[in-house]
Write a structure and sequence with these properties.
By secondary structure, this protein is α/β, with parallel strands linked by helices. The protein has one domain (28-302): 3-Layer(aba) Sandwich (Rossmann fold). The protein has helices spanning 4-24, 45-57, 105-113, 131-140, 216-223, 257-270, 287-290; strands at 27-33, 63-68, 86-92, 117-121, 142-143, 157-158, 173-174, 184-185, 192-198, 228-235, 241-245. It has a 7-stranded mixed sheet, sandwiched between helices. A two-stranded antiparallel ribbon has the order 5-8. Strands 6-7 form a two-stranded antiparallel sheet. Strand 3 (86-92), helix 3 and strand 4 form a beta-alpha-beta unit. The longest helix is centred in the N-terminal third of the chain and has 21 residues, at 4-24. The termini are far apart.
């Protein structure tokens, strides 16, 4: 017969073993990569997702990141087994009416209710008003709203970073990208923490109205010198987490250690992982690694000689 004292020891040992097993389990992350989009080295939904997934898997921090990408049937995964056990889903796709999440709000709501984090990269932060827009507010606290938000190419200076785990290991930096701003956020920014913010130049937006390039609301915000949040995270009522990252137009920007680290941190954070003080570690990808998995044929003219110059362009 097992004595009460021995039973206590056995139960304690079992608890330790269960805890060790839980810690040993990899954190599953699913990237959903949309169809090809903007030409060589831009909006590389699949190649960018694969690069970030590889960085997580090679971090030594027990991640199991995979990418769903089907060029013949782009969109939300039809195979529900891909969603089993995931702790976060990261979407990198065309936005607006073509967003892969628009017709799958209920499915993503069901994941989020289980604590699954939702993150969107670049064009994937844009959706349509109504059911999808309201869902984005629930999932990640904000989104790109047509006729309000804008999408210029500019070189913001991220001079002050918040005291937040997603900013761990990230130094102030500046880099040219298609940084969207004047986003629609939850009322009073409830549960939303800006991560990357900057004040746009006053001459950034053209005077003529355009549903993407220049809106009256965005021009007024620029004139007021409003601080614009181009990356943010959210803590949601049901305990889940989310993030939006508006950069990611240029594929070679993943070579920037600060930009790459802040995104990897955000992915880990929405999966409820602790972030090391120095951030999620990753190797700077080489140019040869960046050229892998491209959706379009090689185009030397798309290789930028300076990722940090102030080059302004509108879609």
């Amino acid at each position: 017969m097992i004595s009460q004292r021995n039973l206590v020891h056995i139960l304690a040992l079992s608890t330790l073993l269960l805890g060790a097993t839980a810690l040993a389990e990899d954190t599953k992350i699913l990237f959903v990569a949309g169809k090809k989009s903007h030409g060589y080295f831009a909006h590389e939904n699949n190649a960018g997702s694969l690069l970030l997934a590889k960085a997580l898997n090679e971090s030594g921090l027990n991640f199991d990141a995979s990418v769903y990408h089907d060029p013949e049937d782009p969109g939300w995964p039809r195979n529900r087994n891909l969603l089993k056990g995931i702790k976060a889903v990261v979407i990198y796709c065309n936005g607006g009416k073509r967003h892969v999440a628009n017709n799958h709000v209920a499915a993503i709501d069901a994941l989020q209710e289980k604590g699954v984090g939702v993150g969107c990269l670049h064009y994937a932060v844009e959706t349509v008003d109504g059911e999808a827009g309201d869902a984005f507010l629930r999932w990640m606290g904000g989104y790109y709203q047509l006729y309000k938000s804008v999408n210029p190419h500019w070189t913001p200076k991220f001079e002050k970073l918040p005291d937040h785990p997603v900013a761990n290991g990230v130094e102030p930096f500046s880099i040219n990208d298609e940084w969207y701003f004047n986003m629609r956020f939850r009322k009073d920014m409830e549960g939303v923490t800006p991560i990357l913010s900057a004040v746009p130049p006053q001459d950034l937006l053209p005077e003529k109205d355009h549903h993407h390039n220049s809106t009256p609301d965005a021009r007024a915000a620029v004139a007021r010198r409003d601080l614009q949040h181009v990356m943010w995270v959210s803590e949601n009522e049901n305990g889940s987490r989310g993030f939006g990252f508006t950069g990611g137009h240029f594929h070679d920007n993943w070579q920037d250690d600060n930009l790459r680290t802040v995104v990897l941190n955000a992915i880990a954070w929405i999966a409820h992982r602790e972030i090391p003080e120095s951030g999620i570690p990753s190797q700077t990808p080489t140019m040869e690694e960046l050229k892998e998995n491209q959706d379009f044929e090689y185009d030397a003219s798309k290789i930028r000689d300076d990722k940090y110059a102030d080059r302004r362009r509108h879609r």
